Amino acid sequence: MIDLRRSRLWIGVAIVAVLLAIVVPRPARAFGERSAFDPRVLLAGGTTGPAHLSAPARWSWELQQRTSAPARLTPSSIRADDPAIVEAPFVYWSGDTAVSELTSGEVSGLRRFFALGGVMVVDDAAAGGDGTVSPFGRSARRQLARVLPDATPISLGIKHVIYHSFYLLNRAEGRVLGPSQVDAIVRGGAAQVVFTENDLGGALARGGSGIWEAPVVPGGELQREHAIRLAVNIAMYVLCTNYKDDQVHAPFLMRRRAHAISPTEP
Amino acid sequence: MPTTRFASTSDLPTWAVVAACVLATASLLLLFVEMRRRERGGALIVVTGIAAVASLLLAVLRPARISARESVVGARVVVLADSSRSMALPGDDGTARQEARDAAIIALQKSAPDARLLVLGFGDGPPQPLVSGGDSRAPRSDLTTAIRALAASPDERPASIVVVSDGRLDDPPEATGEAPNAFTALGDELHVPINTIATTQTAPADASVRHVSASGAAVAHVPMSLRVEIGCGGGLACDELTVTARELRDDAPPALLASGLAHVKDGKAVVDLTVTLERAGARILEVAITPPSGDAIPENDHRFLTFNVARERVRVLHVAGMPTNDVRELRTWLKSDASLDVVSFFILRTKTDKTDPNSPNGQAADSELALIPFPVNELFSEHLPSFDAVVLQNIDAVEYELDRHLGELASYVKGGGGLIMVGGENAFIRGGYAGTSLGAVLPVELDRTPGATSDDATPFAPKWTAQGKAAPLLRPVRAILGDELPLMPGTNVLGDVRPGGVALWTHPTRTTKSGAPMPVLAIGDEGDGRTIALGIDGLWLLKFSQLGARTAGRGHGALWDGLLGWLMRDPRFEPAQIDVVGGCTAGLASTLRVQVLPGASDPIVVDVSEIDKTGSSPPVHLEAKRASPDETTIDLPIRALPAGGYTARLRVGDGSATRRDFACEGGGDEWADSRPDPERLRALAKASHGSFAFAHDAASIPFPKPTVVSAERHVVPLAPPWVWSLIAATLLGAHWFTRRRSGLA
Q: Looking at the whole model, is its pTM more than 0.95?
């Protein structure tokens, strides 16, 4: 009996070890994680953290699990008026209530960030499923218009690289279905501010117990998978810019898109 | 020699003398007409009339006696002797044409002992005194420039010119089409006759590459059409000749770029070859024919030509092992430069990644992914030569099967390609490059022992070396950042700098096995190409950091601009320039001109070696030291080299090397067409009212008459003016009296 128990114990340990090996992502593979993708949480306009606390870390986890990109599993946060805002090329700003007016320090900090080519994702955590923008979304757009008065958001069509930087996506999805396309402020040919009205963080958020924090409507887990894929694509866009728009990829992507649109083809 | 002669008074203009003579003659004619039918007293009237007219004429002319001491000065004749290299070709009797030229000059000197002959050699530029019996070395035969120089000279203008040549001139052109106008214009330069002597009549038995012309500027990776003109004459049987174009490559046999068959008709043929030069910079092409048997001049069967290959756009292959912030910033910079044509391949998924954790195998279907296979075999074999530079950024050579192509990459570098290896955890030692052929062309050693430390994740700020501070490629970034560099998150462990390499940044604390500070950024030359080792993955911090924000992120672009520019031999980033003054001719000494930046007094070292290392010529090592730090141009004489392609590598102090490829031709343009051209000389003589002769008949050339020069002159009137007037009045009165007596009015 003792032997049998021991063998069962060892088998259990082995199974757990294998599962851990599969599930636990590898550590970031860059010197000191400095070059890794860091979904830095932007603290600005009165926000004190992300709308979904676990979303940034899950974003990194999913990126690392699915792609070769290194990512920080413990993302940092940064105040918009902190001089250190210029020390990385990405910030993630989410919220579910209206933000207050940005201080001059915050405006100045964000301008310095954008001047260097930084990218920001504005994630509307309270967006309606029918595409209505929440007070957070409206106020964030208003404040960013003060930061970047020379540019207005435009809708990124399905041909934009953000929909095929890693996965081939046909639309934007999040915790809610929301609008099919993301908006962006494009400067110098690059999307510098990406607005998602789908609560991307809501689809990503997963608690320590391993349970998704918010149900995804109306598409359920398939929609969540699509939302995760959009998050991965955004991260890849940040790290690779328009790499997938290079001519060398064009014939492959055209064939695959055609295949996806015409499923009857062999 | 004293002489005496008579002349009219000097205060009379010539027209007055002529008018007086005409009037006197007319008067006498009238007198004879008047006296023709008269019988009585006619003789006396005529005598007195003649005396009266003569005395009146003398009264007007008032003759004087001129005593002078005079000498005869021979005419100044300039002999322009062809001193170009074509005069070393065989002439009519098998001896060199220059011997016939020298014999003709001697014959000229004998045939006109009074003439003042000035014998000058013409070739490239103004004529120079001809050294009798000396070798003809000029790379051109430009008669037009020589005659124009004589016309512009303040010296005494020659009375005539004698040209002694084989007629194979660069200028004026052959006696066809517009050439007669050119000949006439040449004669008008001095307004003196140009006499010509042809040294040679018959063409030697020779097949040659007469001329090679390109359809336009040579641009890397762009096909270029070469028009090759072939000549065959002197009785050789040439129906078809094989023509080849080969590129001389460093440490490798010449690469055949194109070949064709020339169908010779009427002694000439034209072949169009299309060649593609992959590397920019000075490239040496050998265009050759397979000569028929009996070819008397083998030196002109092939030409070594230097093409300065430009780049339309620099083609860069950017391969990254994983997407990171460093990859992002490098790609952003590469894509922002319109002069770069960037092809990128990033590894976005590893073998263990789960692209769809919810599926049974953890992988999403290919149709759901925007991923393409990494075409490693295609890229690093078929397409590699089409790139000017390759950037390998943090990529594991073993995992991504790059290791099987490292030999090709090393050959690519040696053949003139540029390579930058950018750090990261999967670069250098961890990436499997240590002990490989590619590792051997990097500018730093890599520790290949098992378990060798591959990286150090301790943050540090790189330190500038003295060479880094002086290197032109880092000058722009240094102008922006000064000595300050951002804190790097870690470094790859690199070894000592290889011979010929230069460390520009080093680690502040780590050292190599030899105890030297560990290089972080190093550059080096390898064969025909260049490599850079950058052992960090934090250059993006030149943009995204406090330092980057202070400098608007310009440091990142400035650094990469310098690195890639140096890799592509952009003159802005070269520490020095080197060139061959007046080109190189095989068998003749040449001069290398070195131009360096002012301010330093480091020794200058130049090594010249054959490009293809065939061993026919031992390497040449030259050293020089500047007289003062402000001296920027130094000429270094170099001994005679055999025909072929050469590489001159210049190093100033411990800095990086500058390379210049050049060709030494055995015959060059002057030997490309060995046929003499007496008809051109004949036409030139005719157009300028001169004479033509062959060398054996040089004495038949006419010379201008000598000039008489008076050294001392005395003018004494034969009588004072009043005496002439008195005589004229008396004789006129006597004539009047005689006429009255005879009943005439």
A: no
